[in-house]
Write a structure and sequence with these properties.
The chain is an alpha+beta fold. It has 2 domains: about 1-145, Jelly Rolls; about 150-260, Homeodomain-like (Arc Repressor Mutant, subunit A, Orthogonal Bundle). It has 10 helices and 9 strands. Strands 1-8-3-6-9 form a 5-stranded antiparallel β-sheet, covered by helices on one side. A 4-stranded antiparallel β-sheet has the order 2-7-4-5, with no helix packed on it. α2 (about 105-120) crosses α7 (about 200-215) and α4 (about 150-165) packs across α5 (about 175-180).
Length: about 260
């Protein structure tokens, strides 16, 4: 069982620092804005927006922010109970550092995890375990995928770039296959091999990540956002939104606003 110690969103001012110390908990963090330096296991890492870092307990670490610019990040500290080593990442006791394909999706999951940490709803221990395990599994899978053949990786990156640049359009597998000059079955297999998810799942995650941002930072209604992002019907948008975030759009907005006010 994964047992969280603390989950939070942190706005770090310039000259922010974490003194050199040995970690007593496992740590998972996602940088949402800015950059800073993190030293772990003797390696100095430059973390930027979209980067994910997993640090197991028992490693020496320190961190420092830049002298001018702040940075923002989600952080989860947790421990393992009953020797829960359900994925290799939790067995190897080595840090993992990467910029994941599913960074936007991880951001929405981290946001949801933070809300549950603040609210302490019924069965929150199980919710914490499930969301953290999912995120750690994604990090583990995407870290492993870096070992796939370079050609496959390159094709997956081309598909990802196309989706990011046309996320508000009706993206078809046929259009993607034509863009990279491969068959639909081939690109579907390669994309899943490299990213650990289907093309449809990735498209939905990108669109819903944008929807989350628009719900918080724009004056558009749910219907307007649904139409803007290319969903055929608002009911389908609501269904996909809840599938990705765990909440319908109206509830997500309410909980997010409550979290920031708190």
């Amino acid at each position: 069982m994964i047992s969280p110690i603390a989950v939070y969103f942190e706005r770090c001012e310039p000259d922010w620092i974490v003194p050199r110390n040995i970690t007593t908990n496992h740590i998972l963090l996602l940088v949402t804005d800015g950059s800073f330096t993190y030293t772990v296991g003797g390696d100095e890492l430059e973390l930027h927006r979209g980067d994910v870092l997993y640090v197991p307990e028992g490693l020496m670490r320190s961190a420092r922010g830049g002298q001018r610019d702040p940075h923002h990040m989600y952080v989860a500290h947790f421990r393992l109970q009953d020797n829960d080593y359900s994925i290799p990442l939790l067995q190897e006791r080595e840090y993992r550092y990467l910029q994941p394909f599913s960074g936007d999706y991880l951001k929405t999951r981290f946001s949801l995890l933070t809300q549950h940490w603040l609210r302490k709803p019924a069965y929150y221990e199980t919710i914490y375990h499930s969301i953290l395990l999912e995120m750690l599994s994604i990090v583990n899978g995407e870290s492993d995928s870096r070992n796939v053949p370079t050609k496959s990786y390159s094709i997956a990156m081309q598909i990802q770039d196309y989706i990011l640049n046309h996320s508000r359009e009706n993206i078809t597998i046929a259009a993607l296959s034509q863009n990279v000059q491969r068959t639909p079955n081939y690109i579907s297999t390669i994309f899943r091999q490299v990213t650990g998810q289907t093309i449809t799942q990735y498209i939905q995650q990108i669109r819903i990540a944008e929807a989350c941002n628009m719900l918080i930072n724009s004056q558009m209604t749910v219907g307007e956002i649904s139409e803007y992002l290319g969903f055929c019907e608002q009911s389908y948008f609501n269904k996909v939104f809840k599938k990705v975030t765990g909440l319908p759009p109206s509830a997500y907005l309410k909980e997010k606003t409550k979290m920031w006010r708190g």
